[in-house]
């Protein structure tokens, strides 16, 4: 069998594939963060909590209401989008005029509430969500085995990322959105209802996080803390990529997932910290982020 | 006498009498350690306007270092504390130098991420004892003379340190250095145009703040005899932010009051309501941001300011007053 660095190629490819799965989640989450930050100026600390709630929504939908995975992919983001819109209307609108740090703290508080409620309800141990029947099994690629579900996660996430990028950069709705980011009052003067756009954007951002949560449910244990651990990594990804660019957040999300996977092969002890170390290096070399404008 | 002097005197009298009026010394020491931690954090957020979301790193790291020196190496108490403080100051220097390359919300995210990096290092490093932490840290004695085994003696030792730090912070804030920090908080480009090397001031504030957080961590380690992962956790970083915000950012007593409320809530509520504590803390966070951003002490100061203004008949706008009152007192 062929080996690289004294390890069989299939092991390396397996870890890289896992890294790609994680990277897809990073990309989806940092994409939502970037979209929300662009228009609202809010760094949404609750993004990890929305991801966690999305996974729980799918779990509850299946175990209580018998709603299957495919319907859950639509229902969970929809429910969380409504929750996001309520949060935006009731709370975030009150603090837009203040320093951005306040919205950071507010959404941190919301994340704590969500985490505490779920831990109270389901305990600290994880709930497992079964892989849907159509996506069970593995592909034998000859040089490695590829679980069908993981392939699905990668394809689905990248498709969603592409659709989001296309909507924002290439459609007239996206043009309005970008214009509102640049100068909200001018866009308002042209007859666009900016507050509604802002509200829907926050809803869409939370829906993206929830969608990532549903996709993750079968590969991770659904638990209350899954959001808070991933959100810090996603913040680091955002600092590395620079928050201004949609494409930048997708590329850096996937890229860092791959690097993390590769580190697991070479030096497993460092796999938890490699993203943070890269962030530190990027700060030294290019403080505005790889794709950021200074 | 000024009203603030009376309040300080009353607070000090209460703290001096606390063991005598039946307050559990270990609980009071824990409270003082967190109050010191929050005061150090407030130096950075309240006066320099920098929100660090990874302050648990310095608190917890100093606790580990002090614990390790006192236990594994058998160093005397005071020296172990000094080493702990130096270690956290050094850590603050490295992380601060990286984080001040960005400001505002990015600064918060970077400190959060680097705090998580320190957490993982503490989880995996050989000397920290992993999930178990360092246990059975001896309190030892002060310079080989005064034994700290008794909770009462230890309490007064912690109290002396706390008062010293409190006065030290007041000294910093009222010094020319403190004035420059406030100028940077209010208008950074202007401070630059006046010729101040803004980054050096920010970095020094960051290092001072981490060193104070470290002292608080070292003392907590000695008090409870252990250093654990929960001290470096992101959750602890959030807690110290809450204490400062709840008590009043940019006020001297605010962080102390905030720490008092949060530590008391946790101590007594966690037995009764279990995991609901997280929900309650989160709700307090939300309420603070939405309803009273000045915090408990800040609101009282603002109220008093308005009263004085009304009595003087001066046309002081109430919105402008609280900031000024926090800064000048």
Can you describe this structure in just a few lines?
Chain A is mainly alpha-helical and 294 residues long.
What is the count of β-strands of chain B? 2
Distance between the termini of chain B: 13 Å
Kindly state the mean pLDDT of chain A as a whole number?
87
Overall mean pLDDT score of chain B?
A: 87
Which residue ranges of chain A are poorly predicted, with pLDDT under 50 across at least 5 consecutive positions?
A: none
CATH architecture of chain A: Orthogonal Bundle
Main sheet attributes: strand count, strand direction, barrel closure of chain B: 2 strands, antiparallel
Spatial strand sequence of the major β-sheet of chain B: 1-2
How many whole angstroms does the radius of gyration of chain B measure?
20 Å
**Number of domain modules of chain A:** 1
Distance between the termini of chain A: 48 Å
Extract low-pLDDT stretches of chain B. 320-329
Tertiary shape of chain B: globular
Q: Treating each run of at least 4 consecutive H or I residues as one helix, how many helices of chain B?
A: 14
Helix content of chain A: over 70%
Helix content of chain B: over 70%
Describe this structure in words.
The complex is a heterodimer of chains A (294) and B (329). Chain A is mainly alpha-helical and 294 residues long. Chain A has a single domain (3-285), classed as Orthogonal Bundle (ABC transporter involved in vitamin B12 uptake, BtuC). In chain A, 72% of the residues lie in helices and 3% in strands. Chain A contains 11 helices and 4 strands. A two-stranded antiparallel ribbon of chain A has the order 1-2. Chain A is globular, with a radius of gyration of 19 Å. Chain B is mainly α and 329 residues long. Chain B has one domain. Chain B has 14 helices and 2 strands; from the N terminus they run αααααββααααααααα. Chain B has helices at 3-17, 25-48, 56-71, 77-99, 105-124, 151-174, 176-186, 188-193, 198-224, 234-247, 254-273, 276-290, 295-312, 321-328; strands spanning 141-142, 146-147. In chain B, strands 1-2 form a two-stranded antiparallel ribbon. In chain B, a hairpin with a 3-residue loop joins strand 1 (141-142) and strand 2. The relative contact order of chain B is 0.17. Chain A binds chain B through residues 43, 91, 94-95, 98-102, 104-106, 108-117, 119-120, 228, 232-233, 235-236, 238-239, 269, 272-273, 275-277, 279-280, 283-284, 287, and chain B through 51, 53, 98-99, 101-102, 104-106, 108-110, 112-114, 116-117, 120-121, 124, 234, 238, 241, 245, 274-286, 288-290, 293.
């Amino acid at each position: 069998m062929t080996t690289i660095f004294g390890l069989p190629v299939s092991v390396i490819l397996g870890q890289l594939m896992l890294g790609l799965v994680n990277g897809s989640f990073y990309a989806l989450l940092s994409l939502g963060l970037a979209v929300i930050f662009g228009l609202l100026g809010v760094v949404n600390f609750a993004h990890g909590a929305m991801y966690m709630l999305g996974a729980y929504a799918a779990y509850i939908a299946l175990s209580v209401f018998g709603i299957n995975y495919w319907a859950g992919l639509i229902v969970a983001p929809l429910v969380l989008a409504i929750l996001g819109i309520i949060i935006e209307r009731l709370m975030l609108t009150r603090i837009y005029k203040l320093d951005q740090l306040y919205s950071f703290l507010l959404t941190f508080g919301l994340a704590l509430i969500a985490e505490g409620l779920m831990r109270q309800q389901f305990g600290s141990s994880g709930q497992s969500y079964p892989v849907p029947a159509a996506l069970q099994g593995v592909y034998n690629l000859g040089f490695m085995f590829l679980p069908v579900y993981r392939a699905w996660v990668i394809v689905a996430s990248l498709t969603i990322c592409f659709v989001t990028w296309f909507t924002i950069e290439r459609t007239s709705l996206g043009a309005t959105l970008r214009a509102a980011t640049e100068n909200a009052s001018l866009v308002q003067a042209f007859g666009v209802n900016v507050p509604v756009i802002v509200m829907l954007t926050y809803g869409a951002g939370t829906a993206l996080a929830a969608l990532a949560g549903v996709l993750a449910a079968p590969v991770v244990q659904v638990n209350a803390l899954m959001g808070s651990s991933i959100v810090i990594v996603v913040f680091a990804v955002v600092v590395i990529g620079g928050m201004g660019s949609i494409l930048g957040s997708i590329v850096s999300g996937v890229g860092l997932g791959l690097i993390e996977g590769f580190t697991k092969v070479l030096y497993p002890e460092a796999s938890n910290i490699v993203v943070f170390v890269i962030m530190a290096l990027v700060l030294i070399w290019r403080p505005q982020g790889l794709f950021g404008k200074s | 006498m000024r009203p603030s002097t009376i309040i300080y005197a009353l607070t000090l009298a209460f703290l001096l009498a606390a063991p005598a009026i039946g307050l559990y010394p270990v609980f009071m020491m824990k409270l003082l350690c967190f109050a010191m931690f929050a005061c150090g954090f407030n130096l950075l957020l309240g006066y320099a306007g920098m929100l660090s979301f990874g302050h648990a790193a310095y608190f917890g790291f100093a606790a580990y270092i002090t614990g390790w020196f006192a236990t594994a190496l058998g160093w005397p108490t005071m020296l172990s504390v000094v080493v702990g403080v130096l270690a956290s100051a050094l850590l603050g220097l490295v992380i601060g130098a990286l984080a001040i390359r960005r400001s505002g919300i990015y600064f918060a995210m970077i400190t959060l991420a680097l705090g998580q990096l320190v957490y993982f290092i503490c989880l995996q490093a050989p000397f920290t004892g992993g999930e178990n932490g360092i246990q059975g840290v001896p309190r030892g004695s002060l310079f080989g003379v005064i034994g700290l085994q008794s909770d009462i003696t230890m309490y007064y030792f912690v109290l002396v340190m706390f008062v010293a730090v409190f006065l030290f912070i007041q000294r910093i804030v009222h010094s020319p250095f403190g004035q420059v920090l406030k100028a940077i908080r209010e208008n950074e480009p202007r401070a630059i145009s006046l010729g101040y090397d803004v980054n050096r001031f920010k970095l020094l504030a960051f290092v001072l703040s981490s060193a104070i957080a470290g002292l608080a961590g070292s003392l907590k380690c000695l008090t409870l005899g252990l250093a654990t992962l929960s001290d470096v956790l992101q959750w602890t970083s959030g807690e110290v932010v809450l204490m400062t915000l709840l008590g009043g950012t940019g006020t001297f007593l605010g962080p102390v009051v905030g720490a008092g409320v949060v530590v008391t809530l946790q101590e007594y509520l966690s037995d009764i309501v279990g995991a609901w504590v997280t929900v309650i803390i989160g709700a307090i966070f939300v309420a603070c941001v939405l309803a009273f951003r000045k915090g408990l002490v800040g609101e009282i100061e603002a109220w008093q300011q308005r009263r004085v203004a009304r009595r003087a008949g001066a046309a002081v706008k109430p919105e402008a007053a609280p900031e000024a009152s926090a800064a000048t007192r």
